[in-house]
Amino acid sequence: MTTLIHPTAVIHPSAELHPTVQVGAYAVIGGSVKVGAGTVIGPHVVLDGLTEIGNNNQFFAGAAVGLEPQDLKYNGSQTQVKIGDNNLIREYVTINRATYEGEATVIGNGNLLMAYVHVGHNCVIEDRVVIANSTALAGHVRIESRATISGVLGIHQFVQIGRQAMVGGMSRIHRDVPPYMLVEGNPARVRSLNLVGLRRSGLMEADGGKTFQSLKKAFRLLYRSGLSLPQALDQFDLLPDTESLQHLHQFLKQSQLPGRRGTIPGRRLAKDLAKDEE
To answer: Which CATH topology does 4-143 take?
Structure first.
């Protein structure tokens, strides 16, 4: 089978495209780009820089991937974008490559990035993440697997979004979002467990409900007990031990390390947030 390339597409002779790749009208593909089997590159898509794309991805009209980072520290180094398999990159999504030599912006597998999403330099998006329209990720944002990010919101640089978290639309995300939580508002707050996401993933029924019950108890300790965060984390040892609880515990501990941004507050931290904003 020959590569299905529209005659108006501009493809550098050094680009490496699997023979099953389809390329639409007026697409532009640079010389350091590699594209895996079954990937569809729509009209007016631009793929540039040191960009490696896996199998069975689809890039819709106008997407721009691998262009220079929007970072004044960038000095022209050979930095990368790495994209896995089975991703849907919708219209006019922008994915910038990393800033410094040897670094990469990374997109995993099975993700959906809706129209006008911006992924800044050095971001990492794991697997099966959904990001809705017109959401912007600043540099060095990390989103763990199965998170859902609603539309028209901004995520501050160096923020991390935890596994299976849900972020509501038009929120201002300037701190880390804990795994399994529902966060929304401006200023953003942890409102509840992400019950819809937990149900869809089967986590509610996992281990005969043990995982879900431990997360419910953890939520109450963190946001309804009046305990400080260190006190609440100390109480985690009394909860049913599950992999999900361990992940939540580790995420919260790491979020408090020097240089990290801390976590989005819930009801327990409302007074602390007010002090921060004075």
So the answer is: UDP N-Acetylglucosamine Acyltransferase; domain 1 (2.160.10)
